[in-house]
Structures are given as structure tokens and as C-alpha cells.
């Protein structure tokens, strides 16, 4: 019971001995903790510390059923592809609705059209229209209580993305096969979506009856099936498949159940198509730790943006397990007689996955939802990687505890001396003590102001009035948003001049901010581990090293250094640096100044996209932009700012 | 009451009002940390609707308020449903004012008591004694702790009936401090009818009322008998209103048997979802004993000289260990803690407790979101967080208790003494 009820009354002597030690080594101790967090994570790249994937959900019975799909379906897929290619000659910028509608009806699906409208929030309110087509294959044996979605993004010929035309024929051929089977216990929904993720988002919103009419008017659905158990999104570039690449990262960094991933990998391997997460044509050596670490980071890099990298990512928000199978075509396309064979393999994969999902008795609840994939058959689970975040974010909490100990100890020292003095001296000391006591109101003001600036930045970039005003002034949305953020940035730069806090108050403010920062980082890491990890990696060391110093004793050089470091960890700078390095690595042959320019533009675009994204799809992080790295703006801004104030005193 | 205090009442009222008209009010109302099956406004509306349609709301499994609340809320919902948030906010502000008045009287009383006992105190203990200035500061701190506590704000914006409970408790404390016996017993009886657990509070009430009387034992027995009679007549009155005793099972039975295992910040739900059925009763009674009378006797004997402190401790205990706790209960207990300001220097876990409250208050809703909406985390995550929350509460409680004992010891024996001395626990 020692922790709960320390029975000693006066321990100041013992305590001060501890405190002196702690004070001496506090920074190095916290830094060691941070480093051990980083090392812990790096250690996960060793083969021995990862786990092998396995199936937890027995009901999936992967690959146990005999494949019944026949060669005629493959022939059908080929014929349909030729027909579709023909249609695409005349429909350059839109979906060949009438053709698809007719085909789906002919197969025997219950087919509907779904209209939606996007009212673009900025730039004076333009609006875009789109149409999805979906067909429901009703399960013959149940009353439409559960469903599986097979989603197909359609890209018209003038789309900027890689062409994935064969997807529709393949899935239609499968639908034709599936309609003739009588074992389905869940409805199959075949959705052909328009406008990439926007169409999917509108479909899901309409399916779940969610209303967001101001921005994305998702319309209504004429036909529905039951509760969606799982969804597979297909992006097949060519029937001449080289390998299957799986995409799993969803909105706000959510991941599908690991069982679903394993299922797809297993069934594809069974058909002789190599499949994996971030699959590369070359073979992977599981013993190579450096390679493993690279893979870990590459997954976390994608996840931390919080932006889905395929249509599957939007399902996760509704608690539906989903992933994308991207079939990458062979580079050297030598005319091959084996195409039919490859189509067959793909169809068998689709059949196998659908039948396994059809076997499910409950929603996915076993296996893992929080994991990082190392290779197609190895992963790191939450229990293994969470300690590293715990140590990194925990070092901030511990530092704030140590600061608290030190500051309360200096009070205690005074107290013990006071005891022996006479009444009058005691009064003098009391007065002095009240002078040195913390001015909570003042600290509260700075604290509130810092948070106000953060919320203000969040609000101002989304405000419709301001964007309408920009439109009247004829300022592009990207620039407009950039000016707004710059304004907030400058506001936060000059603000410290208006506050003057004493050393002790500064210490107290630092304690609060460290506590808050540590807590926020932990919460972010729970929601999106990768984002939390990268934020910790950047922010924690700065906050450990920074100490409050008395204004009188600090010299000019340290002062400038501190200011510089704070500018460096400012979210805008981080975003810019990240975009710059990414463009530099991909366009190394171009001149530096060009890249500087280009990445500035990309940064602006990224920020704008993320604002639009957060409005359209309720992205949790405002600035978790497309190619942009951090959601730190919202979460860390008040804190970064608070620290800025502290250190520029 | 000074002007500053009145300003802060207005300011906190404004915060509550702005939040209740904002778009966040609905999501606050639906949070499990705020609304439990016992106090949620949704169920109040449901009950009023059933009652208006001549269906006995206690026959179903939804409504668990007492008949008085059923009557008043169905009247309010029928005649002025738009005013309900404002009424709730006003009740909450009145609670703060009653806390102010009550704690003012208590601290003045404590000061007088101390002046009387001054001769028994050791030398050089002026520093840890209550000062005259404290009797003005303490009630302000208590009221502010209620007005600006995020937990109480959330509770008020969530329109829970815990606001009413807190109001009744604040009246009880107010009347207790002013020796208004009838009002005190009546408010405690109504609160007990609503919320079962608060019957233990009759012990500190009886102790306090017996302080001024000549034969203490008789006074205590009389208080308890008066309380029982009031409670009984309240139930009879309810029977008259409802024409059946169904409500007893729907309120007391529901609380004691913990029938709905909706997640909340307490310890019951997780434990009883995992429980084998034939052990359920055993553990149920163990848990209920733990939250009511297990600590009652030892605490009463330890703190019989300070019934107000006993009241604080008992309130905190039942707010942690009850079957459907919510943040509103905890907010009320927290607002009484500044009453014991002078023992803060003896407390040793302040920082850990504050940090734990902060971390769990943020992580709790996060993992709940992951569990319920994102479908990726599970019950264990949320239970882990609520377990830490409860532990923080218990740390606070034990720390407070021991600090009080240490302070008493130091008042008697002086602050400076042999360093190697230790206070034994038994």
C-alpha cells in the first residue's frame, strides 16, 4: 500500500536528495526514454520479433470449397472487354451508362442508377454531377440481411489515372456466373462508381442515409441490401497480370481486419499470382532487416497521411472491412496465349474471396485491426509497437512530472525553514511566498490564447463567407487559404510580445503544455499509429531539450537558436520540407529552384485538398493532406505556439 | 457573495447555454460518459411520452427515474419543452450557489470549532490552521470548481437528471450546514429515492445534527428514524401517484441488479458481462456492499468529529463505486474538495491524479470511438481507460483521507519533530 498511503509525514530531506539527482539528469533521462522508444521500433524490423500471419476466423475456410467457375466465364469476360472498348471510343469523358445498365440487367441483377451532386465549397460554389450504377444479386436463401460489396471504379478514357478498363468485364463475367449459383447467403452488390472516391463516398452516404446536403448531396438509393459485411475494391489494369498489389490504408489511417488481408493473399497465391502489400516485382528476403524497416516505414508513410489510397478506404468509416486489389500489368507485354488462363485465375480469386466471405457467420472481430505489415506474410501487431509510442510520448509526461517535482520541492525547502521562525518573520515570508506563487490567471490567459489561435486557424480556413469574399476578389482558393494560414502564423509570431510571464509561471505553463502534448500524442497514436509515431519522432526531442530559462540569464545566441528550432518544427515548415524532399527524390534531374517553386505550389495544393477533403469526407485531421505529411497542424499548433511563446520570453 | 462571483456564475451559465445551442450538444448527450441508463434525457422523454399515452413507463425496461421526476418532466415536456435546457442550466447554477452558501457555513463552522479547540493544538501550527480569510476563499473555490469543471459542464449540456441529483445534494449540504433538519432530511430522502446509494449519507447528517444536542445517541437515532419515515412516505406518495409499486423494481431493482450492461465509466459493466451466471449474485452483492456499507463503519469511527469530511469521502466513494456512474457525480464530489484546502500540502499524489484524469478524459472517448464507430478497437481498450479513471479517483480519495489524518496528527503534535518518525497505519 506504499503508493496509496505513504505514511511518512516529513520526508523533505530524503525527497530533496532524490530531487537533486532527478534535476541533474532529467533531460538526459527523458531523452534516453525517447531514444529507447525509437530503438524499440527499429528492433521490430528483426525477423524474430515479428509474427507470421495466420487465420483467426475459422468461418472463412479459405480455399476449402471446390472452384466451380468454368472457362465460359473467361470467354465472356473477353467478349465484354471488346464490347466495352468499343463503347469507350464514343464515351470519352463519361461512363457508358446505357451499355452497363443493359448488361447488368441482362445478367439478371437488380440494377439501379444513383445520382449525386458535389457543391464545391470554395471558389464561388461550382457544382459537379456524377452517376453510379449498381446491381444487387439477391441471395436466394436469405432475406437480404447481409451483403458483400464488390466495387469497381470506372475511369473514362480521358481520366488522368491509370486505365483499369478490364475490371468491369471481369466482375460482370463473375456476376453472370454467381447468378446461376444457389449457395449465396449474402447479397452481392456490384457498384460501378464514377468520379473515383467521390462516387464511393456518395454511394455510402446514401446507403447509410447520412445527410450532408450542403457540400456533397448524395441523393437517394432506390434499392438496398442489408448490413455490409465486407467490401473488395478491384483495380485491374490488364488481364495480363504480373502481380496483385493490395491497398489497405483507409480514411484517417484505419486498416481492415488482418484476416481479410490474409484471405486475399492466400487465395491469390493459390492461383499462382504473387500478391502482397506494396508488392514489388522483385523477391523479398525476410532476413533482411534494413529491407524490413524500409517496408515498415513505407506503410506508415502512407497510413499517416490519413487519406485513403483507394475506394476501399471510405468503407472503414462505417465499420466495414475493405481493401483494394490492384492487378498490375506486365511491363513487357509480349503477346501471350496464356491470357485466358490469367483471366481464369483472376475469376477464381474473386470467386474464392466471395465464397469465403459468404461463409462468415459474424462480422470480422477476431484477428487484428491495428498492425503494421512487413511483408505479405509477416506483420507487427499493436502490442508490439505500442510500447515505442508509450516511451516516446511518455517521456513528455515524465518530464512534466519531473518539472513539477522540482518546482514543488523548491516550495518545500522554504516551508521547512519557515517553521522555526517567529510570527512576524513568518508574515514576511508569507508575503514573499505570495509573490513567488503562480499567477494562474495569467498562465490561463496565455494557454487560452494559444488554443484560440489553433481553433481560429481551423475555423477561418473553412469559413464560407471568407471564401466567397476571396472569390469576389478573384484570388485562387489555394492562395487564399495560404494567406489565411500565413496570417495566423504571423499572428502567432508576434503574439509573445504582448504577454510577459515570470519564470515561475513559465515553468507552470510548460508543465501543463507537456502534459497536454503527451496526452494528445497518445490519443493521435491510438487513432492513427503512424501519424502519432512520426509526430512523436519530430516533436518530442525538441520539447525535451527545450527548458524554460530566465530572461535575464539567457544570451542572445541561445535565444535565436530556440526561435529557429521552433520555426523548424512549425507545421507549415514540416509540410514544405516533406513535399520538397519527395519532389526532389522523384524529379532529381530538375533544377533546384524549379523544385523549390514546384513544391511550394504542391504544398499549397495539398493544404487546399485537405481542407476540401475534411469537408467532404469528414477527414479527422484538417491538414492530413494528399501528399502532405502531417495532421499536426490542428493537433500540435496550439502547443507549438504555446512553446513558442514560452521560449521567446 | 462578491461581484466577481456573480460574474463567474453568469459566465459559466453563458458557456453552458452556448454549448447547449451548438451542434455539439447532441453528441455530448449521447456520450456514455455523460448519459447512463439512469439519467439520460432520451429515456426521460421516452417515459414522459409513455406516461402521456396512458402506458405505465415502469412496466417496460427503459425508464428508471422516480415518479416525481416522471411527473415534473412530463409536465415540462408538455407545456414548455423548449425551455428545458434553460431550466436545467438554471438548476445547475443554483446548485453552485447552494454549494457556495453551504461550504461557507461549513468553513465558518470549522473555523469556530478550531478556535474552541485551540488550546489542544501544538505550538507553531498556525501555518496549517484554518484562517479567517479562508472562510471567504474556500466557498468561492468550491463554487468555481463546480461552475467551471468540464465534467459538470458536460453533465449540464447533456441534460442529464444527474443535474437534479446534484441540486438535491447541494440543498442537503446547504441545509446541513445551517442546521435546517427538515429540509436536509427531505432533500436527502428524495435523492435516495432517485439514487439508492445516497442513503449512506444519513450517517454524517445524523452525526452533524447530534453535535448540538445533549444526548447524542438519541438524537442520532431520531434523525435516522425521521429519514426512514420520510423515505417511506415518499414511496407511499409515489404509490398514490402511480397506483402500483412497479417503480420500485424499475429504480432500486434496476440499480441493485445492474440489469443494463451499457458501457460507462464505472467498474460494473465489464465485470458482469464476463461473469458466469451462477456467480452473478455473489459478485453483485459483493460489489454493492463495497459501494455502500463496507467502508461506512470504519470511516464513521475515524471521522466522527468531522461529519462534513465524512460526507465528502462517502460521496466520492459512492460516485466511484455505484453501478451507473457518470461524470456529473464526480464533478459534484470534486467541487467539495476545496473545502479541505488546508490539507492539500499533506497530499502526495496531486500530479499523478491530475495527469491520470487528463489522460483518461481524452483517451476514453478516443478508444470508445474506435470501438463503437470505427469497429476496430474493442471493449478491453475502453475498460482499460475507465479502470485508470477509477484508480485515479481512488488515489484521490485515499490521498485525501490520509492527508486529513496527517494534518490532525500534526495539529496535535506540531510540525517539527523527529524526522524518522512514521505514522503507523493501524
Question: Can you give a write-up of this model?
Answer:
The complex is a heterodimer of chains A (649) and B (426). Chain A is 54% helix and 12% strand. Chain A is an alpha/beta fold. Chain A folds into two domains: 309 residues, Aminopeptidase, CATH 3.40.630; 226 residues, no CATH class. In chain A, the strands form two sheets. Chain A has a nine-stranded mixed β-sheet, with helices on both faces. Chain A has a three-stranded antiparallel β-sheet with strand order 1-12-11. In chain A, α13 packs across α18. Chain A is globular and about 85 Å long. The two termini of chain A are 44 Å apart. Chain B is an all-alpha fold. Chain B has one domain. Chain B is built from 19 helices and no strands. In chain B, α16 runs antiparallel to α19. Chain B is globular and about 65 Å long. At the A-B interface, α9 and α14 of A face α18 and α19 of B.
Notable traits:
A: 649 residues, alpha/beta, 19 helices, disordered C terminus, B: mainly alpha
The biggest beta sheet of chain B reads: none
Overall strand count of chain A: 12
Biggest sheet, spatial arrangement of strands of chain A: 6-2-3-5-4-7-10-8-9
Q: Tell me, what's the shape of chain B?
A: globular
Summarize model confidence as the mean pLDDT of chain B.
90
- Helix percentage of chain B: 55-70%
Helix content of chain A: 40-55%
Hey, which two chains have the biggest interface?
A: A-B, 39 and 41 residues
Query: What would you call the structural class of chain A?
Result: alpha/beta
Q: How many domain regions of chain A?
A: 2
Number of domains of chain B: 1
Amino acid at each position: 500500500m506504499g503508493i496509496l498511503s505513504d505514511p511518512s509525514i516529513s520526508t523533505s530531506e530524503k525527497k530533496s536528495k532524490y530531487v537533486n539527482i532527478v534535476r541533474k539528469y532529467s533531460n538526459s533521462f527523458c531523452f534516453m526514454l525517447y531514444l529507447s522508444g525509437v530503438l524499440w521500433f527499429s528492433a521490430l524490423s528483426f525477423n524474430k520479433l515479428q509474427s507470421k500471419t495466420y487465420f483467426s476466423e475459422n468461418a472463412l475456410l479459405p480455399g476449402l470449397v471446390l472452384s466451380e467457375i468454368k472457362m465460359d466465364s473467361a470467354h465472356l469476360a473477353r467478349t465484354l472487354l471488346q464490347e466495352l472498348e468499343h463503347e469507350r471510343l464514343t464515351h470519352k469523358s463519361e461512363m457508358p451508362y446505357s451499355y452497363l445498365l443493359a448488361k447488368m440487367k441482362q445478367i439478371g441483377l437488380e440494377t439501379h442508377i444513383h445520382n449525386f451532386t458535389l457543391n464545391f465549397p470554395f471558389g464561388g460554389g461550382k457544382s459537379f454531377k456524377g452517376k453510379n450504377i449498381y446491381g444487387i444479386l439477391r441471395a436466394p436463401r436469405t432475406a437480404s440481411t447481409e451483403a458483400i460489396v464488390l466495387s469497381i471504379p470506372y475511369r473514362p478514357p480521358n481520366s488522368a489515372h491509370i486505365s483499369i478498363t478490364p475490371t468491369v468485364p471481369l466482375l460482370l463475367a463473375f456476376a453472370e456466373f454467381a447468378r446461376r449459383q444457389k449457395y449465396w447467403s449474402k447479397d452481392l452488390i456490384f457498384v460501378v462508381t464514377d468520379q473515383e472516391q467521390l462516387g464511393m463516398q456518395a454511394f455510402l452516404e446514401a446507403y447509410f442515409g447520412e445527410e450532408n446536403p450542403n457540400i456533397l448531396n448524395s441523393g437517394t438509393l432506390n434499392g438496398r441490401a442489408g448490413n455490409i459485411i465486407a467490401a473488395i475494391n478491384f483495380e485491374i489494369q490488364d488481364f495480363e497480370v504480373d502481380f496483385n498489389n493490395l491497398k489497405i490504408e483507409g480514411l484517417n489511417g484505419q486498416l481492415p481486419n488482418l484476416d481479410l488481408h490474409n484471405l486475399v493473399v492466400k487465395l491469390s497465391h493459390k492461383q499462382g499470382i504473387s500478391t502482397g502489400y506494396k508488392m514489388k516485382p522483385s523477391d523479398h528476403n525476410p532476413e533482411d532487416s534494413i529491407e524490413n524497416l524500409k517496408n515498415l516505414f513505407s506503410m506508415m508513410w502512407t497510413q499517416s497521411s490519413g487519406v485513403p489510397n483507394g475506394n476501399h478506404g471510405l468503407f472503414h468509416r462505417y465499420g466495414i472491412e475493405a481493401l483494394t486489389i490492384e492487378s498490375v500489368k506486365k511491363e513487357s507485354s509480349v503477346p501471350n496465349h496464356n491470357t485466358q488462363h490469367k483471366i481464369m485465375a483472376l475469376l477464381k480469386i474473386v470467386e474464392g474471396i466471395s465464397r469465403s466471405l459468404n461463409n462468415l457467420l459474424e462480422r470480422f472481430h477476431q484477428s487484428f485491426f491495428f498492425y503494421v505489415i512487413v511483408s505479405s506474410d509477416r506483420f507487427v501487431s499493436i502490442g508490439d509497437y505500442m510500447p515505442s509510442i508509450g516511451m516516446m510520448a511518455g517521456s513528455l509526461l515524465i518530464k512534466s512530472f519531473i518539472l513539477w517535482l522540482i518546482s514543488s520541492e523548491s516550495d518545500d525547502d522554504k516551508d521547512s525553514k519557515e517553521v522555526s521562525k517567529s510570527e512576524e518573520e513568518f508574515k514576511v515570508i508569507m508575503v514573499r511566498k505570495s509573490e513567488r506563487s503562480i499567477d494562474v490567471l495569467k498562465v490561463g490567459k496565455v494557454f487560452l490564447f494559444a488554443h484560440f489561435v489553433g481553433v481560429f486557424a481551423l475555423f477561418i480556413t473553412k469559413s464560407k463567407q471568407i471564401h466567397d469574399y476571396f472569390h469576389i476578389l478573384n484570388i485562387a482558393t489555394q492562395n487564399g487559404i495560404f494567406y489565411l494560414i500565413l496570417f495566423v502564423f504571423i499572428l502567432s509570431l508576434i503574439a509573445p510580445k504582448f504577454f510577459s510571464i515570470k519564470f515561475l509561471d513559465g515553468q507552470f505553463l510548460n508543465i501543463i503544455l507537456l502534459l497536454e502534448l503527451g496526452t494528445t500524442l497518445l490519443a493521435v497514436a491510438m487513432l492513427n499509429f503512424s501519424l502519432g509515431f512520426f509526430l512523436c519522432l519530430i516533436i518530442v526531442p525538441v520539447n525535451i531539450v527545450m527548458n524554460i530559462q530566465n530572461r535575464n540569464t539567457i544570451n542572445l545566441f541561445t535565444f535565436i537558436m530556440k526561435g529557429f528550432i521552433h520555426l523548424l518544427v512549425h507545421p507549415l515548415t514540416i509540410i514544405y520540407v516533406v513535399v520538397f524532399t519527395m519532389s526532389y527524390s522523384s524529379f532529381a534531374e530538375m533544377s533546384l529552384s524549379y523544385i523549390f517553386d514546384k513544391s511550394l505550389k504542391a504544398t499549397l495544393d495539398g493544404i487546399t485538398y485537405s481542407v476540401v477533403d475534411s469537408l467532404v469526407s469528414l477527414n479527422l485531421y484538417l491538414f492530413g493532406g494528399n501528399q502532405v505529411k502531417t495532421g499536426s497542424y490542428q493537433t500540435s499548433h496550439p502547443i507549438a505556439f504555446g512553446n513558442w511563446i514560452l521560449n521567446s520570453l | 457573495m462578491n461581484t466577481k462571483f456573480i460574474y463567474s456564475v453568469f459566465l459559466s451559465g453563458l458557456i453552458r447555454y452556448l454549448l447547449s445551442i451548438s451542434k455539439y450538444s447532441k453528441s455530448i448527450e449521447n456520450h456514455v460518459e455523460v448519459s447512463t441508463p439512469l439519467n439520460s434525457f432520451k429515456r426521460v422523454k421516452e417515459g414522459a411520452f409513455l406516461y402521456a399515452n396512458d402506458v405505465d413507463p415502469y412496466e417496460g425496461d427503459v425508464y428508471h427515474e422516480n415518479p416525481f421526476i416522471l411527473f415534473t418532466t412530463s409536465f415540462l415536456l408538455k407545456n414548455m419543452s423548449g425551455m428545458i435546457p434553460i431550466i436545467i442550466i438554471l438548476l445547475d447554477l443554483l446548485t453552485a450557489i447552494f454549494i457556495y452558501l453551504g461550504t461557507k457555513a461549513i468553513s465558518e463552522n470549522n473555523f469556530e470549532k478550531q478556535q474552541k479547540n485551540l488550546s489542544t493544538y501544538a505550538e507553531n501550527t498556525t501555518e496549517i490552521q484554518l484562517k479567517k480569510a479562508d472562510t471567504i476563499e474556500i466557498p468561492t473555490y468550491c463554487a468555481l470548481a463546480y461552475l467551471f469543471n468540464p465534467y459538470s459542464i458536460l453533465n449540464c449540456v447533456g441534460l442529464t437528471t444527474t443535474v437534479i441529483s446534484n441540486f438535491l445534494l447541494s440543498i442537503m449540504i446547504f441545509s446541513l450546514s445551517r442546521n435546517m433538519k427538515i429540509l436536509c432530511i427531505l432533500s436527502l430522502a428524495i435523492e435516495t429515492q432517485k439514487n439508492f446509494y445516497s442513503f449512506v449519507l444519513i450517517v454524517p447528517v445524523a452525526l452533524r445534527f447530534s453535535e448540538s444536542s445533549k444526548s447524542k445517541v438519541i438524537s442520532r437515532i431520531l434523525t435516522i428514524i425521521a429519514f426512514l419515515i420520510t423515505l417511506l412516505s415518499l414511496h407511499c406518495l409515489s404509490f398514490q401517484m402511480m397506483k402500483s409499486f412497479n417503480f420500485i423494481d424499475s429504480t432500486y431493482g434496476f440499480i441493485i441488479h445492474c440489469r443494463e450492461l451499457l458501457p460507462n465509466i464505472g467498474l460494473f459493466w465489464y465485470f458482469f458481462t464476463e461473469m458466469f451466471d451462477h456467480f452473478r449474485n455473489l459478485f453483485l452483492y459483493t460489489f454493492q456492499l463495497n459501494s455502500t456499507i463496507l467502508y461506512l463503519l470504519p470511516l464513521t469511527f475515524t471521522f466522527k468529529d468531522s461529519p462534513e469530511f465524512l460526507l465528502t469521502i462517502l460521496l466520492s466513494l459512492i460516485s466511484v463505486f455505484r453501478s451507473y456512474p457518470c461524470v456529473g457525480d464526480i464533478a459534484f464530489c470534486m467541487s467539495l474538495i476545496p473545502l479541505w484546502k488546508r490539507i492539500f500540502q499533506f497530499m502526495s499524489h496531486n500530479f499523478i491524479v491530475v495527469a491520470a484524469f487528463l489522460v483518461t478524459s481524452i483517451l476514453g472517448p478516443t478508444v470508445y470511438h474506435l470501438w463503437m464507430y470505427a469497429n476496430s478497437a474493442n471493449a478491453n481498450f475502453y475498460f482499460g481507460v475507465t479502470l485508470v479513471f477509477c484508480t485515479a479517483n481512488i488515489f484521490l480519495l485515499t490521498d485525501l483521507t490520509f492527508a486529513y489524518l496527517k494534518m490532525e496528527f500534526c495539529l496535535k503534535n506540531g510540525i517539527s519533530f523527529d524526522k524518522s518518525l512514521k505514522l503507523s497505519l493501524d
